[in-house]
Amino acid sequence: MLIKRLIKKIGFKLSNIIISNNRFAGRIQAAALFRTIPKDKNIRHLDIGSGTGHISLDLLKKGAKVISLDSSIEKVSIFNSKIKNSSFSSNSYPIVAKGEELPFKKETIELVICNSVLEHTDNDIEIIKEIDTVMKKQGVLAITVPNKEIRFAQRFQGVWKLLLKLNPSLKRIIFTKKFHNINSISQARFFLESYFNHIHLYTIESISDTIGDRFEIVSIDYYMQIFGAVSHDLLYSIRGMNYILPKIIMLFISRLDNIFFRNLNGKGFAIIFKKVR
């Protein structure tokens, strides 16, 4: 048991280093955003819901000026410790504030990033209204949100149905403890959305309605199409998949989606909007 705990602890620390604070899915979402965010070092990037800063840090390393905003004092402090004494700290402006109460003047921000934010709050429309207020005309809003139409086991659904119907003793061997009493795909989906604190799931139409007609879509990119979608399901359901090596493998194979299945509907999408009114 001691050896197992040590392996798990070491694996967790390694994953923090390699996968930036253990944000497995977050790294894939960030990659989708970075493919389409305008490459302009001279504009200020407002990272709403920045957390411990994996998006902000990547932007800073690319030479951008970044305002990192999060409601958690603890997370902002962790981010500050990451950039302390770095060569790019002068371009970093960490702020503790809520997305529903942005502390900026009207029409002063050029680019806003909401990576994995809107789905976790009841106040998604209020956050968008605040963004609209502080953003300049022709400003850019880059978001990632989960796709309502492609969730757990949408890919290779028959395999998952078979696994979930196994007898209890086999399920205890194959699945992590949280999946032992789950018997259907609908139960699995409900559990996982609750586990990730997903209050909202979106379609292209519903996120467009949430953003409003003052913005128009510039581009849509998908993440977790097949390889990423299946590996994400494995990560949170199959025993042993929460260790460092499977995470690194899954992060790698999910990137293959961008080579083979770039335009295929995925578990989430990265959308770039432009403010036009």
Give the gist of this structure:
The chain has 277 residues and is an alpha/beta fold.
What does this structure look like?
The protein has 277 residues and is of the alpha/beta class. It has a single domain (2-275), classed as Vaccinia Virus protein VP39 (Rossmann fold, 3-Layer(aba) Sandwich). It contains 12 helices and 7 strands. It has helices at residues 2-18, 24-34, 54-61, 73-83, 124-134, 157-164, 168-174, 185-195, 204-211, 227-235, 244-255, 257-260, and strands at residues 44-48, 65-70, 92-96, 109-115, 135-146, 215-223, 268-275. A 7-stranded mixed sheet has the order 3-2-1-4-5-7-6, with helices on both faces. Helix 3 links the parallel strand 1 (44-48) and strand 2. Helix 1 runs parallel beside helix 11 (244-255), helix 2 runs parallel beside helix 11 and helix 10 (227-235) runs antiparallel to helix 11 (244-255). It is globular, with a radius of gyration of 20 Å.
CATH class: Alpha Beta
Radius of gyration: 20 Å
Q: Say what the CATH topology is.
A: Rossmann fold
First-to-last CA distance: 61 Å
Count of individual domains:
1
- Within CATH, the superfamily carries the name Vaccinia Virus protein VP39
SS field, number of helical segments: 12
Report the β-strand fraction as a percent range.
15-25%
Main sheet strand line-up: 3-2-1-4-5-7-6
Global outline: globular
Helix content range: 40-55%
Please state the second-level CATH architecture.
3-Layer(aba) Sandwich
Oligomeric state of shown chains: single chain
Helix-strand sequence: HHEHEHEEHEHHHHEHHHE
Number of strands: 7
Sheet with most strands: 7 strands, mixed
Low-confidence residue ranges = 10-22
Average pLDDT, all residues: 86
> Strand pairing plus helix content: what structural class?
alpha/beta
